[in-house]
Every structure is written in structure tokens, then in C-alpha cells.
Amino acid sequence: MLAAINAKYIHSNLAVYSLKSYAQACFVMPGSKENKESKESAGSGSCTESDGPYIEIAEYTINQQEDAILEDLYKRQPDMLCFSCYIWNISMVEDLIRETAKILPDTEIWLGGPEVSFDAPAMLEQFPEVKGIMKGEGEETFAALVSGENKSCLKGIAWRNEKGEIEDHPWREVMDLDRVPFVYGDMKEFEHKIIYYESSRGCPFSCSYCLSSVDKKLRFRSLELVKQELQFFLEHKVPQVKFVDRTFNCSHRHAMEIWKYIREHDNGVTNFHFEISADLLTEEEIELMGAMRPGLIQLEIGVQSTNPDTIREIHRTMQFDKVAEKVKKIQKNHNIHQHLDLIAGLPGEDLASFSASFDDVYRLHPDQLQLGFLKVLKGSFMETRKKDYRLVCKSSPPYEVLRTKWLSYADILILKGVEEMVEVYYNSGQFTLSIECLEKNVKSPFDLYRNLAEFYERKRLNFLQHSRPARYQIFLSYIEETFPEEKEKFRECLVFDYYLRENAKSRPEFVGEYLVEKEAARLFYEREEKEHIYLPHYMEYDRNQMRRMTHLEYFPLKGRYILFDYSRRDPLTKDALWLEVKVPERIGNGSDRQVAKSK
What we know:
The protein is built from 21 helices and 22 strands. By secondary structure, it is an alpha/beta fold. It has 4 domains: about 1-170, 3-Layer(aba) Sandwich (Rossmann fold); about 185-405, tm_1862 like domain (pyruvate-formate lyase- activating enzyme), CATH 3.80.30; about 410-510, no CATH class; about 520-595, no CATH class. The strands form 6 sheets. It has a 7-stranded mixed sheet, sandwiched between helices. Strands 8-11-12-13-14-15 form a 6-stranded parallel sheet. Helix 10 links the parallel strand 12 and strand 13. Helix 3 (about 65-75) packs across helix 4 and helix 20 crosses helix 21. The radius of gyration is 29 Å and the shape is globular. The termini are far apart. The model is unreliable at about 30-50 and about 585-599 (pLDDT under 50). It comes from Claveliimonas bilis. Its cofactor is [4Fe-4S] cluster. This is B12-binding domain-containing radical SAM protein. Pfam families: B12-binding, DUF4080, Radical_SAM.
């Protein structure tokens, strides 16, 4: 049994599916599920040891109760139980190892994954309940284990032999990626989940914080296979396929062939996610991207820092001026979501340096800006330099930085506050206009989010759950305290942002009174029903239906009526289409007059 404990329900574990598919492809499986079911239906009973290995997958999440997982493991009664181990689940796995061994004493427990591969003997010392650990790539090793090969001669494992002694065997040579079977078949198993896919393994770069730099053996899946498998996703109209390739565009030919295929066979539904190095993008690739359907692909771009000394120290290859140039070119077509990453806690970067990196990336206006914190992973080059950098990290996963030679813990807390505010007020996409206005009132983008974080702390609003309307009210309270003369201007910005995303029929407190007179609104929708000046695509709807599917709001500071149309949204931001409109308003003598200007 291959057990995966995912971070969220929508995630799936590609590793365990790859191990099972490869093992089943290596030898005839008389104990396969299909054979097992046919035997049981014929009354021959359950599989026996002579039937050969029968491999099951069990997926859980870290949000489940450990007792519930333990109960399920016990009821399945596996002969061999293999846990897939990562920084996000290792604490739960360790607990389950101890308890499972008590209730299933005859079950052989094995581990695998990046969190246990690089200190396998120490892990075996710590957990006598574990029989062995598969190190590194697991397909061939797992197939050898379940086929009964002599463990004393098996590469890619550390294990406890018959005498109880720990043997640490050499790592296995990496395999040809074409030998890994395609793991997806019955897509019902993956309904409502992100689909993960790899067209390459390894990475050509040597970033000191990343485990991909440990093994330099980069290899690609053949393009013929990749195209066949992508077609499977397209035919099944999978919502999203996330490529797990570490640097997808490190091979121009490989990337171009895949991006061309995706564009030419676009089904109008499926989105593909890629992690790339933007500075490697060619003009040909950018031109191809510009011709894609909005939302067909999205890009994650790791910047990490714009400090040249830091970039050199972490052995990273990145030229920020080229990154900025390519990001801006892609933005011009407004058809691709770009997600840019920064890492706090890297060597050579103090608070001032990080704030400069933040401002550099922020001014590119990515769709999302991810502020992450250095994680000192077992087996990484960064771990070997902890003493030199006076790098102190948490003892438990995910081993996140607490302080360095350049950053104090107090500085880390400042950055934590900035991270939270960026998530709420930038990455949510719910405060676009309000944030743009606020940017004009502060020295730098970093100061904007630092000031907001300090306001939250001062008002004891941090560490609390806030509703979406409450976040708007808090923002307005911050403006009232900091820029009181600008309160009404910002309130209008917040109202605009609120209705840009949400067709809300009840009005939160910060919005204030509804200023569109009932008679004016009635006349507007009556006219639209007859003439369709602003809503020509609503021909089959009556005035009441149009009113429910749109929102009309008056903004007094600029004397404008804005119509928000929720049937037409931006494919990237999901914002409603908005129009400045003329509204007929009945006045005292019974005649009509036009209020505001059309856009």
C-alpha cells in the first residue's frame, strides 16, 4: 500500500501513482485489482500470497484526524506500507509510523520521498518501527522491493537487515523518463483535483536552497509521448494541468513543441501551469504566447531576490533586467497570468535589501506576488552553510528561517506582516483600484504593506479571521487614521472594487447609502430592455433579469454612474466588465433629464 498525505484535498500525489504504474508495468500482476475482482465474483475468495503483489493507493490530507487515518490503515491490513514523505506531512507521518506499528505489528513499513532520502540512516535510527527507506527516484526501487529482490544487493535503499543492522546502499542511477508509464486513466479518481504532470526531471541550475540542484541529471520525456498524454487531458477537459518540471523552458525546443501543441489543440477549458525562468524566454516563445487564448497557460517565475550579491551567493542564474523585460512583454497581451516569487532570508539580504527586491518585483505588477520564507531543506547546499550564514531555522518541518547574519527575528516578523497584507490586499485581486490609489500616498510599495501590517497589529486585528466586507472596512479605517482628508475618495475606490468582483444585493456598512434613485434605476433598465444601449448581449432577458445580473452604482465625487456586468468577466482577473453610463432620471415636472456622461 502506497500512502500519500497531501496538503489539501484538491492535491494528488503524482509520486505514488508513478510507483504503482511502473511496478505494474514491470511484471505480470496476477493479483491486480481486475483479477482480484474477477476471482472474488467467481467465489474463489480474496487474493493470496501466491497471486503476486497487489498494490493499493490511499490518499489522505494533513487536515484529517490522525485517528481516522489510523483506522483506515488498520482496516486495509497492508503487508507492506509505504509512506510518501515531504516537509508538509512528515510530522504526521512520524506519528502514524509509531501508532501503526502498534496495531499492525506484522506490517513492513517503508518510507520514501525528499524528506527522508538525504538522512535515511539517521531516520532509521530514530524510528526502529521502519524497515527501510527508498532514496531518491523510487519507481525502479519500489518495483524491485515488491517483486522480492534480495534487499542486500538492492541499490537506492537504506534498510534494517535480518540482524537489525542498518545498511545504507548507494543511490540508484536515474532512469529514462519514457519508461515511467502514464499514470492517468480513470479520471473519476481525480475529479475536483489538480492534475500534476512531468515532462522532465532534474534541473540545469544549482540554487543552493533547492534539492533539484543535488542531482544534475536533467532528462526529458519524449515529445511524442508528451503530446499523446496532453491530448488525453484535453479530450477529458481537465480544468488544470500543473507541470512539475523544475525549469520548464530550460530546453527551447522542448518548451516550444509543447506550447505549440497546447495552442493548436486548445479545448477552451483546460489551463496549463508552468514554472519557468523568464530571462531564458526567447522572442519566438513570447510571440507564441501572445497568440494564446486568455487563461490557456499561466506562468510561475522564481525571482527570489534582485540583489546581485545574493543571487551569486545562492549559485542562482538570473538577470533581473531580462526578467523584467520579458514579464512586461508578456503582460502587454493581457492573456497570461504571471506569478512571481521572492524568498526572504537568503544570504546577503537584510531588511533594506529585501524591501528593494520587493519593490523591484512589485513594480512589474504581476498577477500574484508570492513572498515566501527560506526553508533549509535536508540535503541542500544551503544546509551545509548554516554556520557561515549564522542561519537559524525551525527544528521541525518545514525548517523555516528564524534569523540570519543579516536578518533578525524582529525583521522576520516585519516580513511576516507584509506577507499577510500582500495576500489580503494584493494577491486576492479584490482591492485593485484602492491599492493603486494608496500607492500614490506612500514612498514605496514595501512601505505600503508594512504600514498596513503595523495598523493591523496596533489595532489587534492580526491573527483574526475577517470577512471580505470587514477587510474593506478595516482598509477604510486605516485611511481615516492615516489620510483623513482622503477618506471619501478611498471609500469610492473601495466601493468600486467591491462591486467589480461581487454582485452583492445587500450593502455592507462601508459602502454607505445607495445613491441611485429608484425611479432612475427603473427608467434605466426599462430603456435597456427596449434599446439595449449598454447590454446588447441581454436581448433575451427582461428588465428584472438584467437588473439581477448587473449592478448600477453612483459615484458622487466624479458624478458618474457605473454599470457592472457580471455575465462578462475578465478571463484572467475575473473582474466584471464595467461601463460608465447615462442614466435617465425623472424630475419634478415629469420630464426626463440625462445624468452623467457616457464613457
